[in-house]
Amino acid sequence: MRIIKLNEQSRANILADLLKRDPNNYSAYEGTVQEIVDDVRARGDEALFEYTKKFDGAELSADNIRVTQAEIQEALSQVDPGLLAVMKKSMKNIREYHEKQKQYSWFDSKPNGTILGQKVTALSSVGVYVPGGKAAYPSSVLMNIIPAEVAGVEKIVMVTPPGKDGKVNPVTLIAAHLAGATEVYKVGGAQAIASLAFGTKSIPRVNKIVGPGNIFVALAKKAVYGHVSIDSIAGPSEILVLADETANPRYVAADLLSQAEHDELASAILVTTSMELAEKVSAEADAFVQNLSRKAILEKSLENYGYILVADSMEDAIETANAIASEHLEIVTKNPFEVMTKIQNAGAIFMGEYSSEPLGDYFAGPNHVLPTNGTAKFFSPLGVDDFIKKSSIIYYSREALEAVHTDIESFAEAEHLTAHANSIRVRFE
């Protein structure tokens, strides 16, 4: 891995480089995606089945697009019992963590005759997109469905691309069944997002769409935003390790590669105050790459967006971490909890040498759907809050309103909204 001395110029160059991966920069695909979205909105199932045949090679119809109980039972027989047991342990941790995020309605009654409050209501329906193809990502299924189920969403509709045989990956399907999906449909890509946003004869319209996907899925979510809510427009995965001379270089190198293997646009950055550590991590990473199965992807990822930055001080290192606002941030320093208090921008923070990023991906409990591409400066991890909405509650008695009615009338008249003022005034004529 390349080693760069950290200064104002190198930091600016790296930030600019990382922003090139923003999905909003892929405007060349927007026209194609919009055509698919508009076509599904206009022709519904007919367009949906055509695109599935074209892109996935599967023959779909209204009779087989929805996964049946028989298919779930068949999938269950194909999943390794050991993996099933691990998934159940992971589910327990994820559910317990998200239960702590639940919000409740509240009401504040005062002696002057006023009641103010907030009513919390779960969304009635949510669509969850799960990538398909050769790979299966049951962890993403759990992370997207369980918070919705904890929030109290009644209808959780999952969509995922089928194989050419018209079937869903059995591990993906069982993860959805265990997590609480109420319906599963065999459709992927931009056409799946459009079907969830507008509804077709076979697939119901939902209130919100969540879940990861390729650039076509990301741009489709962007295209339908406003017709439905979405979680985010996710960019490539990224990790930043903040380390001092006490860090184990072999551990750090392994953790950097855990994200670099996702795809060629993934980012892996070490920011350290130790040149000795930097050199050792670079050597360890290069050695690891030669023996890992995704060697070609790792090499390209590290070539494009892999950096080891050597800072003059921990303050400079922390400032850089906050500027990058990484999806995953590992703190491997002598006093990680102290450093953590100075971190303002990060999707998930992992502290100490035994809290590596995959722990969060699969098992610990906090959500692994995290803000990317610097959006941790203003976005949060997916959670129960994403599946609820809030309504304000206001009650005033006549006596309470009478005490303030002239104030409200004068405020409204100052804005030249006389009908507003009149709405108050008529009650005390």
Automatic annotation (TrEMBL):
Cofactor(s), names only, from the UniProt record: Zn(2+)
Pathway: Amino-acid biosynthesis; L-histidine biosynthesis; L-histidine from 5-phospho-alpha-D-ribose 1-diphosphate: step 9/9
Family the UniProt entry places it in: Belongs to the histidinol dehydrogenase family.
Top enzyme class: oxidoreductase
PROSITE patterns: HISOL_DEHYDROGENASE
The name this protein goes by in its record: Histidinol dehydrogenase
UniProt-annotated catalytic positions: E327 (proton acceptor), H328 (proton acceptor)
Textual note on the cofactor: Binds 1 zinc ion per subunit.
Organism lineage string: Bacteria, Bacillati, Bacillota, Clostridia, Lachnospirales
Record InterPro entries: Ald_DH/histidinol_DH, Histidinol_DH_CS, Histidinol_DH_monofunct, Hstdl_DH
Residues binding NAD(+): Y129, Q191, N214
Keywords for the protein's UniProt record, in alphabetical order: Amino-acid biosynthesis, Histidine biosynthesis, Metal-binding, NAD, Oxidoreductase, Zinc
Function as written in the Swiss-Prot or TrEMBL entry: Catalyzes the sequential NAD-dependent oxidations of L-histidinol to L-histidinaldehyde and then to L-histidine.
Gene3D superfamilies, sorted: 1.20.5.1300, Nitrogenase molybdenum iron protein domain
Binding site for substrate: S237, Q259, H262, H328, D361, E415, H420
Gene Ontology molecular function terms on file: histidinol dehydrogenase activity
Binding site for Zn(2+): Q259, H262, D361, H420
Catalytic activity reported: L-histidinol + 2 NAD(+) + H2O = L-histidine + 2 NADH + 3 H(+)
EC number: 1.1.1.23
A UniProt-annotated Pfam family: Histidinol_dh
